[in-house]
Amino acid sequence: MDDLTDRDPRGIAGAIARQIRRGELAPGDRLPTVRDVAAELGVSPATVSAAWQALRRAGLIESRGRAGSYVRSEPRPWLSPRVQGLVGYVEGLPLDLSRGTPDPALLPSLAPAFARVRPTADTNVYQDAPVLPELRAQLEKIWPYVAEVITVVNGSQDAVARTLEQVVGFGDRVAIESPGFPAFLDILDVLGAEIVPLELDACGVTVASLNRALKAEPAALVLQPRAQNPTGVSLTPQRAADLARAIRRARSPVVVIEDDHSGAISSGADVSLGTWLPDQVVHVRGFSKSHGPDLRVAAVGGPASVIDRVVARRMLGTGWTSRMLQTILLDLLVEPRSIEAVEGARRTYAERQQAICTCLREHGVVVAVPDGINLWLPVADERAALVQLTTAGIRAAGGSPFLAASSDGAGSDGDHVRVTTGLVEVHEASHLAAALAAATRAGAVRSGA
Questions:
Q1: Which uninterrupted H or E stretch holds 195?
Q2: For residues 151 and 139, what is the distance between their CA atoms, to the nearest angstrom?
């Protein structure tokens, strides 16, 4: 509170309010204790307590009893805890690179596909097979291995969640990448699973971390084979073979769930552990990043012992994914102009990532060129980096929600922010790189970096 001039309750509350408005204190941040603030400012605890009460009345902070006082988050009860940590919004920022969404300008046009769809929604028999035969045949052509059953669900996250629900029970252990996708970590918390973090290097999940995880006898293993979110790492064919060999050598019955959410716009090899372990691998192929998030269609394939249970559970709820949307996706997968648009998007994203990383090197920041649309940027201090970027008119996602907690601290290698650099055109790379480079150093003195 360097700008504090009045040390009465009103002055203290005003200083905290200004920090919240500037983004220096973000939704969900824990405030110092009343006693600590009182000692720092040389005032009585009653004075600070009165300031805290004023902030609560203004709706800026909330008390959580013995856990302390926190900056109030915008109410979003439909979002899971880690996802809520990603969606705080600062008004007026011209560039939002926090969302992990594709560039709308690079998605294929839906107009030709809509023109070929029947003008009315069919009256289907509710108990029909949930996937169109023509779409299933096309999916089989692009699947990385021969899957016993392939069906479609409402997006990659839906596929992973429904598969986890069928193979993971309360108290089961699940091995998952850290950093990894926050929603998957939240799903595991809801299921009552114990998370076993897996480490990543430039080739994907390390064999050493998988071997350690297999000793815990996990029920499931969750991987992102291409354009891993948030790191942008893609699994190499050799590493995929090594991981499959480790599972086979351990004689583990673990169910491997692969979320290939960015397949069509990824520059990485189309690999799957299903090539070696077809009876243990459930592979998910997403189309949100490549063809449009609002299509809400993903394919999931694997052994009938798992996929049939997923389908059966859906029939008691959602039933099936709209066959009209399936028809549109099929059209997009076979129509030459759509294929060309997606291939062009893949090249464009690769060019943008290369441009950003080249410009970052000019500022002394050396990072590997990521696959996909996100950049996992090491910083001296996560909170200070986010404030620095906010000052520059840029919003990024903090790295903390992507980390899987573990008792020994595994899965964390320092502070990071995730930046959806795939949204930034090549001619804007230099400007963004300068801002990112400054953010990597923000808070370095305070954090001791």
A1: strand 194-198
A2: 9
Query: In whole angstroms, how far apart are CA 431 and each of 312, 385, 438?
Result: 51, 16, 11
Looking at the fold, whether 28 and 48 belong to one and the same domain comes out as yes
CB 389 within 8 A of CB 69: no
Q: Which of 266, 281, 259 is nearest to 227 (CA)?
A: 266
- For 229, half-sphere exposure in the C-beta direction (CA atoms, 13 angstrom radius) is 26
End-to-end Cα separation, the chain, in angstroms: 22
The answer to whether 353 touches 233, Cβ cutoff 8 Å, is: no
Q: d(Cα 49, Cα 234) in Å, to the nearest integer?
A: 51
Any residues with CB less than 8 A from the CB of 212 and at least 6 apart, and which?
none
Q: Measured between alpha carbons, how far is residue 434 from residues 68, 91, 115, 171, 363 in Å?
A: 37, 22, 45, 46, 7
Of 322, 337, 352, the last residue of a domain is: 337
Instruction: Return the residue matching tokens 């905290």.
Output: 16
- For residue 320, CA distances in Å to 99, 298, 324, 442 come to 28, 12, 11, 49
Q: What is the pLDDT of residue 1?
A: 56
Tell whether 4 is covered by a domain.
Answer: no
The answer to the question of residue 394 being in a domain is yes
Is cis: bond before 75, omega within 30 of 0?
no
CA dist list (Å): 172 to 175, 218, 308: 10, 7, 22
Residue 8 amino acid letter: D
Q: Are residues 323 and 388 in the same domain?
A: no
pLDDT digit string, tens, across residues 353-412 = 999 999 999 999 999 999 999 999 999 998 889 888 888 889 899 998 899 864 334 445
Q: Best-predicted range by mean pLDDT among 84-88, 105-109, 124-128?
A: 105-109
Quote the domain boundaries for residue 385.
81-105+343-447
Q: What are the start-end ranges of the E strands in 83-143? A: 95-96
Tally of structural domains, the chain: 3
Domain finish residue from 337, 363, 385: 337
- Asked if 57 and 122 sit in the same domain, the reply is no
For residue 336, whether the previous peptide bond is cis, meaning omega lies within 30 degrees of 0, is no
Identify whether residues 207 and 274 lie together within a single domain.
yes
194 and 236 part of one domain: yes
- What whole-number distance in Å separates Cα of residue 368 and Cα of residue 1? 38
Does residue 173 sit in the same domain as residue 270?
Answer: yes
pLDDT exceeds cutoff 80 at 6: no
Tokens 């410009």 appear where? 359
Contact (CB, 8 A) for 222 and 184: yes
- Report the distance separating Cα 98 and Cα 423, nearest Å: 10
